[in-house]
């Protein structure tokens, strides 16, 4: 017997305040990303407090950006229930919106601290994937962001998933693709790839971060079409045909696209955006190399302009102190053999 929600979305309650699995999992994902960034930051002598402050500023910025992005495309569902806009524990945040919010925050924060943008986001890239990898399990708990209908045998016999995942994928009156799991595993592979890539001597500043976008967007393009809750719009039939053609290898492997209401749209926004991001990221890597903007290598030292400027200034209290006052050394008087001073 299956229930509409196999796992209780509330972990526990503090008085009348419920603590949701969704928020707890997002918090764990953020801490995992912080840990990876701090560990790599040590290699460049960047203090861990820098990344901790970045997390405190970046997480709210990412959540706000993610929610604004999601609500903007589903405004008809929220305009008459505005209070629901703030109920993020019920799900409904978009990863691309989160990235936009986090990047805007990063640009401001890095400039304030005097660190070069491309160098720091390179360090943070694996941490972003770690946050996404873990955060997708929040979708699992909430039974959202799932794919189209599949047979139970597909989940048990082909994917060999444990019971707790199979049971949670029974939504409504059917089993569904665990797209949260596909994306989580894709992110894990991406972390390993970026960690190997950043140890290669040929990698330039900014290319780890751009590689993150390329890797994530490739996975998102193929996984997104399996989902049944995609944000969509009505676009040209030519673009829709191009996207479907690029996705066709999934059909050869036995996958079918999730349902997208034709009245809602014929193009999934995340799929189109994923393609654009891949093209832009590749173009940026090429242009930055050709124009010399990426002259620095990933392994080069990272120096804060603010810290360098502070080190170059001699504090007032250091002037004319005994240890800084030049000492005048008097020449010794010439002496005779008996030790008497010469006249």
Automatic annotation (TrEMBL):
Residues 332-343 have a biased composition (Basic and acidic residues). It holds the Pfam family LGT. InterPro entries: Lgt (IPR001640). Pathway: Protein modification; lipoprotein biosynthesis (diacylglyceryl transfer). Residues 315-343 are annotated as: Disordered. Signal peptide: none annotated. A 1,2-diacyl-sn-glycero-3-phospho-(1'-sn-glycerol) binds at residue 136. It is found in: Cell membrane. One of its GO terms (molecular function) is glycosyltransferase activity. Its EC number is 2.5.1.145. The keyword Cytoplasm does not apply. It is an enzyme of class 2 (transferase). PANTHER family: PHOSPHATIDYLGLYCEROL--PROLIPOPROTEIN DIACYLGLYCERYL TRANSFERASE, PROLIPOPROTEIN DIACYLGLYCERYL TRANSFERASE. Belongs to the Lgt family. This is Phosphatidylglycerol--prolipoprotein diacylglyceryl transferase. It comes from Paenibacillus tianjinensis. The lineage of its organism: Bacteria, Bacillati, Bacillota, Bacilli, Bacillales.
């Amino acid at each position: 017997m299956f229930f509409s929600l196999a796992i209780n979305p509330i972990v526990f309650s503090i008085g009348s305040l419920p603590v949701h699995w969704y928020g707890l999992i997002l918090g764990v994902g953020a801490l995992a990303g912080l840990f990876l960034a701090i560990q790599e930051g040590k290699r460049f002598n960047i203090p861990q407090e820098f990344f901790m402050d970045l997390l405190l500023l970046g997480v709210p910025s990412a959540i706000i950006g993610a929610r604004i992005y999601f609500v903007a495309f589903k405004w008809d569902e929220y305009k008459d229930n505005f209070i629901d806009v703030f109920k993020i524990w019920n799900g409904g945040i978009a990863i691309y919106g989160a990235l936009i919010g986090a990047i805007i925050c990063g640009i401001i924060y890095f400039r304030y601290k005097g660190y070069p943008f491309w160098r720091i986001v390179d360090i943070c890239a694996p941490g972003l994937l770690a946050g996404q990898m873990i955060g997708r399990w929040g979708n699992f708990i909430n039974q959202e962001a799932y794919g189209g209908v599949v047979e139970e045998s597909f989940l048990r016999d082909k994917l060999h998933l444990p019971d707790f995942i199979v049971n949670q994928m029974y939504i409504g009156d059917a089993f569904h693709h665990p797209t949260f799991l596909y994306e989580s595993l894709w992110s894990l592979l991406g972390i390993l790839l970026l960690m190997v890539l950043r140890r290669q001597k040929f990698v330039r500043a900014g290319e780890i971060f751009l590689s993150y976008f390329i890797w994530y967007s490739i996975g998102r393009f193929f996984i997104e079409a399996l989902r049944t809750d995609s944000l969509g719009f009505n676009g040209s039939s030519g673009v829709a045909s191009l996207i479907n053609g690029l996705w066709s290898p999934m059909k050869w492997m036995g996958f079918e696209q999730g349902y997208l209401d034709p009245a809602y749209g014929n193009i999934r926004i995340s799929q189109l955006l994923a393609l654009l991001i891949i093209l832009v990221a590749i173009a940026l890597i090429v242009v930055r190399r050709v124009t010399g903007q990426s002259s620095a290598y990933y392994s080069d030292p990272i120096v804060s302009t603010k810290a360098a400027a502070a080190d170059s200034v001699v504090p007032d209290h250091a002037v004319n102190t005994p240890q800084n006052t030049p000492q005048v050394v008097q020449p010794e008087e010439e002496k005779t053999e008996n030790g008497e001073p010469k006249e």
